[in-house]
Automatic annotation (TrEMBL):
<comment type="similarity">
    <text>Belongs to the glycosyl hydrolase 1 family.</text>
</comment>
<dbReference type="InterPro" id="IPR017853">
    <property type="entry name" value="GH"/>
</dbReference>
<keyword id="KW-0378">Hydrolase</keyword>
<protein>
    <submittedName>
        <fullName>6-phospho-beta-glucosidase</fullName>
    </submittedName>
</protein>
<keyword id="KW-0326">Glycosidase</keyword>
<dbReference type="InterPro" id="IPR033132">
    <property type="entry name" value="GH_1_N_CS"/>
</dbReference>
<dbReference type="InterPro" id="IPR001360">
    <property type="entry name" value="Glyco_hydro_1"/>
</dbReference>
<dbReference type="Pfam" id="PF00232">
    <property type="entry name" value="Glyco_hydro_1"/>
</dbReference>
<dbReference type="InterPro" id="IPR018120">
    <property type="entry name" value="Glyco_hydro_1_AS"/>
</dbReference>
<feature type="active site" description="Nucleophile">
    <location>
        <position position="361"/>
    </location>
</feature>
Amino acid sequence: MSLKFPNDFLWGGAIAANQVEGAYLEDGKGLSTSDCTPNGIFGDIVDRTKTEINGLKDIAIDFYHRYPEDIALFAEMGFSCLRVSIAWTRIFPNGDEAEPNQKGLEYYDKLFDEMAKYGITPLVTLSHYEMPYHLITQYGGWGNRKLIAFFTHYAQTVFTRYKHKVKYWLTFNEINMSLHEPFTGVGLDRKSNKQQIYQAIHHQLVASSRAVKLCHDIIPESKIGNMLLGAIAYPLTPKPEDVWTTHQENHGWLYFGDVQARGYYPSYMQRYFKDNNIKLDITKQDCDDLKETIDFISFSYYMSCCATADNSLRQKGNILDMVPNPYLEASEWGWQIDPVGMRYLLNLLYERYQKPLFIVENGLGAKDTVEADGSIHDDYRIKYMNDHLVQVREAIKDGVEVMGYTSWGPIDLISASKAEISKRYGFIYVDLNQDGSGTLNRIRKKSFYWYQSVIQSNGETLK
């Protein structure tokens, strides 16, 4: 069997507006939830009614102004796809306006045109860890059913505007993260109870399905998917209680995919809601809306974890509470490295849904050192990505239909969890320090040339 990936495989990288653009409140942009967590999605929520700069995300890597330079570098690597997000607050600054902000629309026109110049296919996320802050203060976030209409108005606006430029879309980034960070995910107070969180998630799932229908209607040749945080768990031991706990924990995030890919709530969630006295307001129209299902499954994968019935073994991570796997090494940030988990996850999702899969985030956050001659030898990143891509290739040999691979952070960006620049993911180094100092100059790392060769050979150079 050929060592190559499919000929139409999409190679590229993934970025998010709130982690790269900067240009805080420029050209009519409104306040977002991301602006109100300047120290990362798990940091304190800050009152941003004042407009002074507060944190790295306000400037980020200045992609808003430097995108032509960055896209040229992506093209040099050979990207056929770039995953980006539209900042909802650039299009509707408050989220509830009748008419969009024209300067925001024009910015993304220019961005997509620049990508087209190099033959780079856009994969666009509608809501990536941000939403208009006004929708929280005025309406109470996704706990309010009115947000379904606001989101679908936004979706309809951008589908109509960019229907000739964008054919691949995603609705909500890592939609299952709302269970772990409700402010970032659904705009709720962090002290919200399960009833409130799951009701807000329900509204978001309905909004996602309505956006899918709009996309199908407005851009018939398009493909639109969901996006999951691939939080795969293994049993810590073969003890039956650990195996069952693991099954339940995986249900906790897979149910988002079940609803979006199958069009209804699975029976295990009905049991969960009953056991936890959760009574959702689900209308007949909601049930009809949910039947409009996604075309493909997209997901992020950084690490796996273990699950056990013994809660005393859990450790607090910077994203999720988890039980470490004793057989795996970890990154500087404590994220366990499990390339085989990528193959397992791909097979699990494909067997479950029989829909094409798209790996839209995968990468290694690490501290990079610029040598005296200006070079950056990030062999650790090359090894991480090589080993994961080898497992992607194995999954394709297994018969899994994989559309593409967009590595997380092809250029250094501000991390979501703690708003750090020291946690670098890129093939391209950005001269920026945590205190905001630096030239913002871009430097090619060793991994830049490695990924370039992987793309040019369509995966043949992987070891």
